[in-house]
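User: Round two. Same drill as before: sequence, then structure, for each protein.

Assistant: Same drill it is. First protein:
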Amino acid sequence: MSQVYGAIHLLRLFAKMGPMLAYTALDEKSLQHVLMHIQDFLKYMVTNRSTLFNLQDYGNATPEYHRKVQ
């Protein structure tokens, strides 16, 4: 699925994860542990950004695509 959606969609998940974590039953120590792993993963993405984020992977959707998704 990562080849279909790409790293940008994973970043969108991370952006929404903060508010979602507020609704978990995690204690403070567990929450800090999860946040540490998220930060490590985001650092990995920054380090490997030239491989993970490629402008050529994105394009404009065709009118046919827009008709199908409406």
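Second protein:
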Amino acid sequence: MLRTTLTRTAVFRPLRAATFSTTARAMADGDTGAPPRMGGQGDAFQRREKASEDYAIRQREKEKLLELKKKLAEQQQHLDRLAKHIDEITKDQGGEQN
């Protein structure tokens, strides 16, 4: 089946002369000759660079989360102190509810 498919497609296509490019391939600074980052895998350098950038971003996010947890704990302690203070004030006032 493959042979018949190949021969049929070869019959319908006209033969073209092979053309060769004689210009030199120009690369800009930083070009590695690999597919762009938005495309496929890229080369090993691009994958390693992306991995290190991702790691640095995760570390910064981790530090920010630790700071937020610390601030949240401090705010909770402050709220607990205020609640104790309110309880002390209301005990001293007396009345029917105490």
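The two ends are 95 Å apart (CA to CA).

User: Perfect.
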